[in-house]
Amino acid sequence: MKSLSLLAIAGLCSLIALSPARAERRLFGKGEMKEVPASEELQRQDGEAKVLLDKAIAAKNGGKLEKAEDLLKDVAELYPLTSSTGVARFELGRVYEEQEKPIKAFDAYQAFIENHRESDLYGEAIRRQFELASFAMNGKADSLFGLIPAKSQSTKVIEMFEKVAANAPRSSFAPQAIFNVGLLQREAEKDAEAIAAFQKLQDNYPADPKTKEAALQIIGIREGRKTNDDSQVLKTQLEMEKFIADFGTDPRASELQEKVGQLEHMDADKKFGIARYYERKGNLKAAAIYYQEIGEGTSRYPDAQKRLAELKAIDPNLIAPPSAPRSRVIAQENVVDRPDYNGPPAPKLEAPAKPQMRASAEDVLPIPAQ
Q1: 295-322 pLDDT, tens digit each
Q2: Domain segments of the chain: what residues?
Q3: Is-contact 112 139, C-beta < 8 A?
Q4: Could you tell me the pTM of the whole model?
Q5: Cβ–Cβ under 8 Å, residues 260 and 237
Q6: Please, what's the b/e burial string for 67-106 (b: 16 or more CB within 10 A of its CB; e: otherwise)?
């Protein structure tokens, strides 16, 4: 009992040495204040908080980072309504940076941002958050993040960039942060998430220089997919055509134009084969539709026009009136909606069986002149 009494006395003496507010927190625990203090009490707390903040900054400048960390935490925890709290939270982030604790630093800035949006330090906190996330992204994570597994590091860095974009959506850091999210998702082979990030950048920041690069990233992702799915090929071409329309003066637009031409030639071959199939089956109406959908300038266009002339000689009603030129993509998407269409849906080459529209290799060859 004697030893217990001595411990109790020692504990009370340690509390007496603290300021009244700190002693109260040590006795009753931390927590949110139940009510706003009176003006006189708030003025007293302002003074105490300023004293602690000055001591913390002095400790930081003197290289005593652990002491500075403790004092800055006390300011934020004991005097949450004082003018010193915002500076304390910001300086806590600086201390964590000097201690090479980037996650803690980022989170300290986040606490500052969420509670002190009116502060003059707000923009600087955003900048430091962006730099911390970029530092981690650019190969520094192994030494900085310590025990965090590499896979989790990528997820954490993505979260950091997403917070930067959400904290300051109108800042110059937001579009770059979203772009970096797309890069990280692509690196993680999460194509859908990467495309969503790059698309978000294009939708929300159309005038930002990164919009062009985001468009190229989407094209690169779609091109990298090994697929025979016609719908995916069409989406790739749509992205290319959009880039050409939006950024036609960019040197890379000419390369994309060549790729679009290649896709159009491939599509013309498919349509000619399908038309030949229908013609052999006696479904001349469907054959004519596909012949008409073959674009001018493609390798199959002369053959298609020749077959259309012969079909028109058989029955002029088989040929629909000419319409305004349409892109290959739009034509492919809308052909089955035409009122004069009476054929099956366009084939999808990813099916394990042979394409339904092709009976043999001869189906892609021109019909000999009669």
Answers
A1: 888 888 898 899 999 888 888 888 877 6
A2: 264-364
A3: no
A4: 0.67
A5: yes
A6: bbbebbbbbbebbeebebbbbbbbbbbbbbbeeebbbbbb
